[in-house]
Amino acid sequence: MRTVSAVLAAAALVAGGPAHAATAPPLPEVEGVPVLGQAWVGNVTDDRLAVLTVHGLRRVDGGTVLYYSMGLRVQDQRGDAAHFDAYGNGNNYVLNQGGAVSLVCTAAAIDPEHDVAYSALRLDSSRRCISTKNIDFTAGADELGKAVVGYTVLAPVPTDVSTVDVLIGSQLVQGVPVEDGLLEPAVEDPAPAVGTGWPTVETSAVAEAVAPEKAVFDLRAQVEDVAKKLTEATRGGVKELDLDATVLFATDEASLTSTAGSVIREAAAEITEAGTRGTITVTGHTDSNASEAYNLDLSKRRAAAVAAALKRRLPGSISIRRVGKGESEPIASNETARGRALNRRVTITLPQ
Amino acid sequence: MTRRLAALTAAALATIALTGCSDDPDTPEPTGSGSVSVTSGDDSATASPTSSPSPSLEDRSAELLEGAAPLTEIARTRAAKGSSFAGSTFTFYQLTRSDASTLLVWRVSGGKGSSSPSDANVRRWENYPVMVADAKEYSVVTFDKEVDGWSALSNPILRITSGSAAPPQSALYPPLPAGTSSVTLTSPWFADVEVPVTEAATAAG
User: Residues of chain B with pLDDT > 70: what percent?
Assistant: First the structure.
């Protein structure tokens, strides 16, 4: 997900460019306890916030174990038990493969650099994931200020990924290192207090995970250069340039407008400057207005028009493949005007 | 082979291996230690357990909870009249960049309350706030949920209660260039607002 602009900005810094932004407050140092990131987690039923802490992301055979804790500060206690599985925003849709509905099952290691997220492995159709049980993830009414440790087993993170962002408890935590092996000592307490050991992970269950491939999600990121009318996107590790069809073509037309030339010139420059070799793919996309057949034909004609214009501006060593996808691959909702505009595009995919 | 396909292949191989030896008493014990050394800003992979003796096991909850940096307001703006947040206030607490991503954290308060603010829909990612900096627009990162299509990598609230602040929400964005000191957030949800940027914290050494 590193953008060209980010690289250029970093280079400018080395050359004495703008000063660094302020740094976020440091994480607490706790003897014997790794503290890799923290966030505040709410609860839809009351206004108290719990402290979420990520303690480890550890590779095991067939999976990755996320260790985290949650706790209410003493001053936030009201003499009642804290059921941490009920915390979060009540939304278990994000990066959850479906079925496993719980805070402890809505978790993921996010690799923004390669545009992939590794979420909780699911065990069976009874909506279980391999994790601390909801009923155990609790601090009792007589346990004021206790932070309890839980775990969730995620899909395996590749060995060449060293740092990820983490989703847990409805919150995101940046820059968590991925390391090897379980945290020790493991203890019998299914949700021990922070500092008293780590929960015993049910590693034997990893082999029983159902459809582990569904726990891995592709990500897409986009940065639009407003002046160039060019959007640089990465999707599942593949770099793309999105050209706004509204700028390139009149409605229902496949002939390039007078303003299209500058956009295609900028795109050609980006492709060349990226050191591209081999075959690029030019793909036409439409929104869902009109019939599928009409949109498919329109997208093919638009891809051909852009490919022809690009070819004149690219080195002969780069070949172009043209594809029309019609309305079949939207990137946004067709139910909103903004979404339909995003879907009307011509995408240039660069070879990996 | 895409990154995702490679990961899936690895997962399948690991599953096969585990299935084949699940009853094997010689399966090696996993390695690791509670006394892991955490190094500030260390990007190196697979840190090894340290050889130093483990500290005594005792409840460290207080140090952890009291040491957490409080949520501190960095910007606020009013909800747009035409949005389902109308009447609410958006308060921003965190906009931190790393070399891999940018994280935005905010809360919504006030308004009439809503059991389901329709604008807080991850499947309408195009309505999520856009970060504008140096003539570039950074959109929220999306994830592909197969049949459902692309959705925002964010966890929206499902309920706003009148008179109280909703739980914190966060969303992930592409990395801002190093040195970016502020961005303008623009969205159909609220009036444009300038938000300062901080560098992400790293684990203590």
Answer: 67
B31 inside 8 A of chain A by CB: yes
| Count of structural domains within chain B | 1
Mean pLDDT, all residues of chain A: 90
- Across the interface, whether the CB atoms of B142 and A331 are under 8 A apart is answered yes
**Would you tell me which residues 47-76 of chain B have a C-beta closer than 8 angstroms to some C-beta of chain A?**
47-49, 54-69, 71
pLDDT digits (tens, 9 = 90+) for A157-199: 999 999 999 999 889 999 999 999 999 999 999 999 999 999 9
CB-based contact B167 A113, cutoff 8 Å: no
The single residue listed with the structure tokens 């994480």 is A27
> Between A260-273 and A292-311, two packed helices, what is the crossing angle to 10 degrees?
70
User: Which CATH number does the domain housing residue A266 bear?
Assistant: 3.30.1330.60
Q: Residue B148: which domain range?
A: 75-197
Q: Are residues A141 and A250 in the same domain?
A: no
Q: How far is CA B45 from CA A128, B28, B127, B157, in A?
A: 30, 21, 37, 35
- The domain boundary, picked from A218, A249, A282, lies at A218
Domains identified in chain A, total number: 2
Distance of alpha carbon B195 from alpha carbon B185, whole angstroms: 7
- A261 at the B interface (CB within 8 A)? no
Residue B40 resides in a domain: no
Tell me what pLDDT residue A33 has.
97
Domain shared by A225 and A324, yes or no: yes
Which tops the pLDDT comparison, B177 or A97?
B177
Buried-state track A266-280, b at ≥16 Cβ within 10 A, e below 16? bbbebbeeeebeeeb
- Return d(Cα B192, Cα B76) in angstroms, integer: 10
Q: What is the CATH number of the domain that holds B178?
A: 2.60.40
Q: Establish if B150 belongs to a structural domain.
A: yes
Average pLDDT over residues B84-107: 94
Note down the domain range covering A41: 32-218
Q: B-contacting residues of A 187-226, CB under 8 Å? A: 193-198, 203-204, 206-207, 209, 212-214, 216-226
For residue A99, the Cα-to-chain-centroid distance in whole angstroms is 20
Residues A214, A235 share a domain: no
Residue B122: closest CA among chain A residues belongs to which residue?
A94
B41 within a domain of the structure (yes/no): no
Q: How far apart are the first and last CA of chain B?
A: 38
Residue A40 resides in a domain = yes
Q: Report which residue type is found at A340.
A: R
Task: Tell me whether residues A20 and B141 touch, CB distance under 8 A.
Answer: no
State chain B's mean pLDDT as an integer: 76
